[in-house]
Write a structure and sequence with these properties.
8-stranded parallel beta sheet, two-stranded antiparallel sheet, TIM Barrel, globular, tryptophan biosynthesis, alpha/beta, single chain, 212 residues, 32% helix
């Protein structure tokens, strides 16, 4: 069965066009200044209006305050907010109520000790992003090209849709799906030729693998 794919960290029209042409179901824009994939509100707004209907436009933020979120939501036509910081379940609830958009909460996984957080956030978020936990000294909370031990979530399910992320490439996609049962995948660095530079051929290869 094919899986749905989110191409995250899009920052230019070429990458966006490649994601759309390849069949991505979600496209993600990163609002985190430290990331090589960061976009401004103006850049994201210009890109978002070019996304065809039926493809979800997602804004990735990291511990953003209300003023930042207000500006993003007011100026960028979005379908979902992705919270990739240390937002508490209470903060997730606040953001959903304030902006009226579905919220996806990213949860980093490195060991069994990280799994209870998935249950806690599944109770308040519309979707989960199950990602590799960033190393303590990593400047980025995600997009580090790292995978986690997929056996940790084998057979686990939550009451909301979930997406697998972390170190995915066209080469390991099939194994990731087989081990975890994921029906949605998120990829960023795995379809780049350099940090922040999306590669059309790699995007196409990833989507082809997802359909296979």
């Amino acid at each position: 069965m094919p899986v749905s794919v989110k191409i995250c960290g899009l920052s230019d029209r070429a990458g966006l066009d490649a994601a759309v042409a390849a069949g991505a179901r979600y496209v993600g824009f990163v609002f985190f200044a430290k990331s090589p994939r960061a976009v401004t509100v103006e850049q994201a707004a210009e890109l978002a209006v070019e996304v065809p209907p039926g493809i979800a436009k997602v804004a990735l933020v990291v511990d953003a305050d209300d003023a930042v979120l207000d500006e993003i939501v007011a100026r960028v036509p979005l379908d979902m907010l992705q919270l990739h910081g240390r937002e508490t379940p209470e903060r997730v609830t606040e953001i959903r109520a304030r902006h009226g958009l579905p919220v996806m909460k990213a949860v980093g996984v490195a060991s069994e000790a990280d799994l209870p957080a998935l249950d806690a956030y599944a109770a308040v978020a519309d979707q989960l992003l199950v990602d590799a936990k960033a190393p303590k000294d990593a400047p980025l909370p995600g997009g580090n090209g790292l995978a986690f031990d997929w056996r940790l979530i084998a057979g686990r399910r939550w009451p909301v849709p979930w997406m697998l992320a972390g170190g995915l490439t066209p080469d390991n996609l099939a194994e990731a799906v087989a081990r975890t049962g994921a029906r949605q995948l998120d990829v960023s660095s795995g379809v780049e030729s350099a940090p922040g530079v999306k590669d059309a051929a790699r995007i196409r290869a990833f989507l082809d693998a997802a359909r296979g």
